[in-house]
Design goal:
mainly alpha, transmembrane helix, cell projection, cell membrane, elongated
């Protein structure tokens, strides 16, 4: 009876450590406005659902304290990696908003906003606010949770005791590199219409400045650039959000099927 109780507590502890580590970085759950007690309660609820599903594949509790500590630290690293990968996929939307904001004249690289910060723009902050709504309002929220459950089958809890741990570690590194690359690709795809139109606009301004050097082109063109950019943003906003949702869902589904 004691061995059974010890096994149940150990299984719950191991799953809780990995789940809570992931919750710390998954967008929405990791927001600064979410109280710590809510995160702990959410982690306990997810652990209660996931632990019975993965318990048959978990190893027995190690007899050596050092082995147990190493196993717990490994779960923290794995959980943080899963949360970071999810965040890297979803942050492509604010990244695209940053590029769009520069192109339509709402922000300037040379004159960063003192209120939003040097590394943030108006549209990037707006898309950061929209991100949790899209994440929790659609089926995207289920994909990181499924990936977290499947991770117990893909990455063993006692990874250090396996001979193939180096292969799994190298695969995780390749996954991180591919995720970051896909993040930039999706951001560029979303902002592509604004990047193309922005280059054409800047080329036209350069020709106008060359033809009429005495005219202050910047002060004349800046209001038109902002107005035209806002109109284009209103036209393409639905396509932007739809493209991002499809791309983010495809990348997160890839993690589920690993």
């Amino acid at each position: 009876m004691n061995d059974l109780l010890t096994g149940v507590v150990f299984d719950f502890l191991i799953v809780f450590v990995r789940v809570s580590s992931a919750v710390m970085l998954i967008p929405g759950f990791s927001a600064s406005g979410v109280p710590p007690m809510v995160r702990i309660g959410l982690s306990l609820a997810l652990t209660t659902m996931i632990a019975p599903l993965v318990a048959p594949g978990l190893p027995a509790m190690p007899s050596q304290p050092a082995t147990l500590i190493a196993m717990i630290l490994l779960q923290i690293v794995i959980g943080l990696s899963i949360g970071w990968l999810t965040q890297a996929v979803l942050v492509s939307l604010p990244m695209a908003g940053q590029a769009i904001s520069y192109q339509i004249g709402l922000s300037s690289v040379l004159l960063p906003s003192t209120e939003l910060g040097a590394n943030s723009t108006l549209l990037s902050s707006l898309f950061n606010l929209i991100l949790p709504v899209l994440f929790f309002g659609t089926s995207l929220i289920m994909l990181p949770l499924l990936s977290l459950t499947n991770s117990f089958h893909l990455i063993p809890v006692d990874l250090l005791a396996h001979t193939g741990d180096q292969r799994i570690a190298s695969g995780l590194i390749r996954l991180v590199v591919r995720t970051v690359g896909s993040e930039f690709v999706v951001a560029i795809q979303i902002a592509a219409p604004f990047l193309v139109i922005g280059m054409i606009w800047q080329a036209g301004l350069g020709l106008m400045a060359r033809a009429a050097p005495q005219l202050q082109i910047f002060f004349v063109a800046a209001p038109l650039q902002i107005l035209a950019g806002l109109v284009l943003l209103a036209v393409f906003l639905g396509a932007i959000l739809g493209t991002w949702q499809h791309a983010a869902g495809a990348m997160l589904m890839h993690y589920v099927r690993l």
